[in-house]
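hey can u check if this looks right to u? its 1189 residues, i copy pasted from the old doc so theres a chance i mangled smth
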Amino acid sequence: MTLPAPEVIRGAKQVYNHLDLRDRIASLSSPVKKCPLEVQKMQTLFLTDKTALPTVIRQFLQWSPPKDTKKSVEDLVKKLDNALDEFCCGTFSDDELEPGPTKRRANDHDIQGNDNKRVRSNSVSSIASSSSSGVIVPQLKASSPLTPPLSPFEASEMVDTDTMNSKQNVLYNIPRAAKSFEGVPWTVQYEIARFMASCPVPDLSFEVLQKFLDVANAEPRKLFQSMMEWYGSRTGAGKSAAVYGLMERCSDHVWTHLEKTKEIQNNNRMLHYSCIMALAAGKPPDIKLRPPKVGASNRFFRKFGDDRFLELKLHRSTHPNMIRVFKDYFLKPFVLMGRTYRFLFVKDDKVILFATEGPYLKDTLTIRQVIDWHIPILENWDMTISKFASRMSLGYSNSIPTLAFEPDQIQYIDDVYSDEQGNEETCMTDGCGLISVSAMRRIMGLEHADTLPCAIQGRIGGAKGVWIVEPTLDFNSGDWIQIRASQQKFKTGVQQFDMKSDPIHFTFDLVKNSICIYPSNLNTQFIQCLSSGGVPTSVFVDLLTEYLQRLTMVVTENRNIRLLRDWISKTGSIMRARWEMEDIEKDVWREQQSVDSDDYLEAQNSDDDPQDITGHKPTESDYWKINSYSGLPAALHESTVRLLDAGFDLSNPHVAMKVTHIFRDVMKSVCTKYKIEVQQSCTVTCIPDPTGVLEPGEIFLQLSGRRIDEKTGIPAGLVTGDVVVTRNPCGLKSDIQKVKAVDRPDLRMYTDVVIFPIKGKRSLASYLGGGDYDGDIVFCCWDQRIVEPFVASEMPDEPAQMKTVFDKNDTKMRQELVKHRDLAAQEVAIQKHFISMTLPDGTLGLYENWRTVLSESAGLDHPDVIYLAHMCAKLVDAPKQGIALKRSVLQRDRSCFAGNPYPQWFQDKRNRQREKNFRSYQEVNKDVSVREGPLGTAMDQLYDTLLVKTDAFTKYTRSMFDDSDVQRKDPDLSAPWENALAMAKELKDKSFDDDLAKIKKTIDDQIAEYSQDVKELVFRRQRKTDSRFDPSRPSEPFLEYSQYNTMFELEEYYARIFLNEPETLSSAVFKIDKCANKEQMLQAIKASYAYVKSVRSEKFSKFCYIVAYDQLRRLKADARAKTAKTNGLSEAVAPYMYTAMTLDRGWMRKLKEFKTASDCGTAHVRLDLSSHLVTLLPPSGSQESPDSK
């Protein structure tokens, strides 16, 4: 509720006294919307220009009307309108206003004009090429069809064909004076820009814009709804669900984050503003603004602010080399809401832009100044340009600022080298420094951690790598950190013009703790190399069978619903996601997920994630999304766990379907990536021995999570005996080494890391795919079935041909900059080199595919396989090293290796991972020959085993459980509706009966409309997908909308309608319920009928859960409570308490050890007996419940 400003009230009183309208003064205490028109106009003018309102009032009071006329309020309104028009409207020449066939770009004077004449195109290609207000077109008709929710980039006749020749790229520039946004947070400005760029509407009037700003100021979470409702009424679409699909709603988590940062500055998590960008030769760039997202901060954000950066992320259909093709486009300024963004650098598949100038920015900066702050150019004069460009991205790495060291607390020490001649491989401490225990405690204290890791990965100044606690554990030595020469990547932290150094350069930026995953998994590369080293195929088949049995037992012994809940929680990393939502966890730890992936090279995108009916893949961002009207989380694992917590079990069709999808995804991961869990294995960070006590061939491995020996059951955290170690990439036989794990008392303070010796000819890490100690993670396995038969191999020499396959750019910064004396010219030269650097482009995946295929038929000892493995290792760091693969070499290798027939398992894996459309099918299967028969390799036999045991199971789309055990109707959920019908019949209350009929009809209509909208959504997406690959339709946009979760907006729309309708009910029962119970009974009855209607039409229907998720959970939880509590009320837990709760690890361990059913009253549901999964059960397994044994 917004009241008139005091200045407005004062001015209105003067006017009313002047006009003898004192009776209107009382209305000034009402909200602005209920005030007279003149007060609303005064408020708008005041918010637009505070100095203009007193002037207008003074002029009105001094103004004398024409003879025989009386001064009135209408005269004041006219003067207020004139003042607003003068503020917002410019003057166009006649030729500018005349429409014609020639399209033109807006100039500086085009930012204002006639609302009835100018309509902005919804095509981002036009937005990226012209001022959003600069094209003169006929007025938009109210009957104009809506832009389809899944096609925001419709071809438009307003597209500027001269995009590449314009001097700047206008993403969106609001056609109003900047004063309108004075004091408005950048996030609100950005959201309004997204709305105007997404929806094809005329320019906003001041009244409408001010309405949006008022909503954003009072309740920013309602800004999206306010904008979309206005757009629907403007276009005649009303409150159609299609309107809400035009733009993805900004997450509530963003507004919560902004509210928190007003009170407490949070440098751990900040906002990321980004666009999705598609590039294709012969077409203007398509750029779509995406909602801001809360994510990890970085050094650049902490220095300059997150609102000064804009990420242009490549669409997955765009080849990275297109960035260089569009080099001139990216080197031009980008304009967004009056701010000028310029190219800074490229990181992975993102082009990073920096706002150098614009309204309300603290200061104007050049790109040269930003670069100089991060990496002083003169201090790093002799660094190659390619390495300089790669080091720029270090400042953009996710990190947490922790302890700021004083300059005298930073010590620089030498590395330890072997006596052998060589390069990096002879450095025994490459990338690893030391830190005092006092400093480590302060760093982790700032991170709110209770335990102290012995190793952390981070950045400080120009150094990066891993730091381990010094072995003496001297608590009295104070805070200090030792940086080795191998860790120092560039010089920074020099004194500025004020003779001071920026403390940010002396702050330790925490990237992540040391990693420990126990137990861990095999993957395709590990299996191939271990098999080549002598491990029998039967061992891998046994390990696979054991793993599948463990997974199967999770769902077969489902009477204990708590164990199932615990497994789902761990599988979906639910607690980590909740921590991130609370701004507690260090986001990071996205990088930890990479250790579970097949390897570093997957050329195709994984298709393991479940898709909804629109084809959308749930992503990590879904964790932020919870339907604010029904309470339904978008994340699969989170929504399932909440249902289990409420008392649902597998007898409920919706829960059975969700658990089936989760289990299917795990099985798909096994089938596509061959992730086979080995109980006696772990994946941990490797570090060099800080004491020097380990001899060559020895390691030290101690795990805090290993409480007992896996075979004997004896308590043992220390691993001893023979162990095989390796890491990704693992392309050579020598990339797996057999070592001996030993006990050394001097190293017992180090846990959850593997310690390698600093003695020997070369570092042990360098044997493992050329690794080092700056954060590499190592797979360790002590399962004797693998270790005993394995025979390690010597590292082969690098093939001679490797010396001639790459072009190297050794140009140094000084060589380029001395060509330009002007600083601006030097800046442009740096930008041109940064954008021309080699980017990861899929070549690595191509060579790895060739290596995998050839190694199956020729073996890992074949010279060509060794050559391809070395190529893969080189291509990993090619951009950083400034090397580029020669085109002639790629063509030669393609002709040599692309024709090799693919093993059936490998081609099947590629088909499982591809996208489900014809284009992807062609890309994966074109020009590929598949070997007719198996070769008898380990991978062939594992593939055959998987086909027998899991293939049928992975095809389940609904439920893998026995249909007779999965109830169609749950009496706990249908009871409120049935009881209401019975009560109406018993009371013979016609009004109550009419209200129930009204509720029934309203929900029936909602279900029908929802089904129709979903079908239309699917149809539009399919039509858009088909048009992308139809060569006869080149004008169709090629940036598909599957990147945006419009299904979520559609579901939230129907949840809001369900919550608020029907709006009026006449019976006394519901009137009393509304006054005394806040409609709780009404909502329970509505949810119950929605459930009855949903399951009546389709057993696995989910409409009722979409619109009444929390209400159904409440009904189920109270029904469960009746069996244990007399009052029949379930436990009451506040949301902020619930999200912090998890099942006790010790409790879960005891349940597993004692194998007790712990019957909670939940039903035992059997597997579908037709499922091949039944064959995975151990001989003693039974489909009977534990109680029947």
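The mean pLDDT is 78.
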